[in-house]
Write a structure and sequence with these properties.
The N and C termini lie far apart (about 50 Å). With about 300 residues, this protein is α/β, with parallel strands linked by helices. The longest helix has 15 residues. It is about 35% helix and about 20% strand. The chain has one domain: Spore Coat Polysaccharide Biosynthesis Protein SpsA, Chain A, CATH 3.90.550.
């Protein structure tokens, strides 16, 4: 039975807990097919597009939880926070993976990803990205010689958190409407408290759509959202680092430098300065948007 939470959110299906891990999938009309192979995880689908909401109402779905959110201004992490406030039983899961709908596990299953994450002993992580993915951060590309790496950065695309970490970070999930900058917050806080976050190289995923190509990016001042996150949480704009690589042996990689990040660092400093001059900043933002697609293609080559 449907449970209307607000004018826009409906709990269409709420099943029982049948596994120790939960995948939360923000699912639109062009979502890739997520294979349910492997045991040990339940699925929650969040549908936000009228087309997919109508389809699910007519045809049903095989997810344990199905949520409808008709407000186009709410993004993945805001919605997840609301759902957890409604369904406290979700706290019984051990780990939660929050996926975008354009990700495909390559040479592994979702179960494999959760298993490797558990073996690391850390609280926050993500699968590495295959080399043919669309990507934003070089540090997250797969390094085949390692099973996993201890780093200081995990992005918003597909984070995995233990339930303890999840409950600690839920409060910041609606810090802004875009979600931009949330990854900087949890990555730096985890690194300060627990020594880092993990990138899972042996269980990679492919990101199949261009960065910034979805409707979630429309009318969002993403760079300013990130700047506000840095200011509010007193974050340092430090470069991405890999501390250790775990394979047959453990390698010390603390001196590894990702040159592509320096472009992002320069861009961030420009945003800090130009945000004081709205007209100039608007021109700067238009230039970035104009060359976004060219940068996406260049990064895949």
């Amino acid at each position: 039975m449907e449970n209307k939470y607000s004018d826009t959110m409906t709990l269409h299906k709420v099943g029982g807990i049948s596994a120790k891990n939960l995948v939360v999938l923000n699912k639109g009309p062009n979502a890739v097919i997520l294979n349910r192979d492997g045991l040990g995880w339940d699925l929650m689908e969040i549908h936000y597009h009228p087309q997919t909401i109508t389809q699910i109402k007519n045809e049903g779905g095989n997810a344990e939880y199905i949520i409808f959110e008709a407000n186009p201004n709410l993004r993945k992490f805001e919605i997840i926070k609301r759902i957890f406030s409604l369904l406290p039983k979700l706290e019984q899961y051990e780990n939660v993976m929050m996926m975008d709908d354009d990700l495909v596990p390559v040479g592994c299953t979702i179960s494999d990803i959760f298993s490797l994450f558990g073996q690391t002993g850390f609280r926050v992580g993500q699968p590495a990205l295959t080399k043919d993915s669309y990507w934003s951060h070089e540090i997250l590309l797969r390094v085949e010689k390692y099973n996993w790496r201890l780093t200081n950065f995990v992005e918003v695309m597909c984070p995995i958190m233990t339930m303890q970490a999840m409950l600690e970070y839920l409060d910041i999930f609606d810090f802004n409407s875009s979600g931009f900058g949330l990854d900087n917050i949890w990555s730096e806080l985890e690194t300060r408290k627990y020594g880092g976050v993990v990138v899972l190289d042996a269980t990679p995923i492919r990101h199949s759509r261009p960065i910034g190509g979805g409707s979630a990016y429309n009318n969002k001042n993403l760079l300013l959202d990130r700047l506000l996150a840095f200011e509010r949480f007193n974050l340092s704009n430090q470069r991405h680092k890999v501390f250790e690589g775990h394979g047959k042996e453990i390698d010390n990689l603390s001196n590894k430098i990702y040159f592509s990040q320096y472009v992002d660092l320069i861009k961030f400093e420009l945003v800090k300065y130009l945000s004081k001059f709205p007209k100039i900043y608007s021109i700067f933002q238009c230039i970035l948007n104009k060359y976004k697609s060219k940068l996406n293609e260049a990064k895949r080559k």
